[in-house]
Amino acid sequence: MENSNEKEPVENQNRKTTLINAAAAASQKQKSLLQRVDNDIGSLVDNFGLLVNATRANDPPVRNSQEAFMMEMRAALLLVSEPKQTAVYSGFASLNDHIDRKTDVFRRLVDDTNSSLARIGEEASASLRQLESHYYYSTFASSLLSGDT
User: Fold this and answer.
1) Whole-prediction pTM
2) SS3 of 138, please?
3) How far is CA 63 from CA 12, 55, 69, 89, in A?
4) Distances from the Cα of 33 to the Cαs of 28, 41, 62, in angstroms?
5) Which of 23, 69, 89, 90 could be 94's S-S partner, Cβ–Cβ 3.0 to 4.6 Å?
6) pLDDT by residue (tens digit) across 65-83?
7) SS3 1
8) Residue 90 to residues 32, 43, 51, 97, 117: CA-CA distances in angstroms?
């Protein structure tokens, strides 16, 4: 029995060492993935900048449209990089949760914007009716309608 008692501390030590090594390997793998993601995103941005600079024109309308396109593409790259980094950090399950939360936030913004636009339209309509009423009952409109100019 003493032999089995002596083996237990050695086996526990081996398990601890194995777990520590596995954690270190996982940490190293995560760091390398993060570095790869950063390098990929940087490469995308650099390549896009080179493409835009190679096709740059001096005509102002073309240049403005190119700059607008460039800003849109950079925004798209940022939108792509955020989920990519989130996926590396926490996996696809949390990525789907993150996307669902963002979708809910954007839907709320759409609803708020639509209600604000409806309210503004109603206020503008009411103001226009009020202005028309003031105009038609004014002495200026009355003189124009009666032919007295």
Assistant:
1) 0.34
2) coil
3) 68, 10, 10, 39
4) 9, 12, 39
5) 90
6) 777 787 888 877 777 777 7
7) coil
8) 15, 23, 33, 11, 38
Residue 118 corresponds to which tokens in the numbers above? 């409806």
Distance separating the N- and C-terminal Cα atoms of the chain: 123
Rounded Cα distance, 132 and 105, in Å:
40
**pLDDT given for residue 111 in this prediction:** 92
d(CA 85, CA 33): 9
How many Cβ atoms are within 10 Å of 148's Cβ, its own excluded?
7
Percent composition of the chain: helix, strand, coil (DSSP 3-state, to 5): 95, 0, 5
Instruction: Please give the Cα distance from 67 to 105 (Å, whole number).
Output: 29
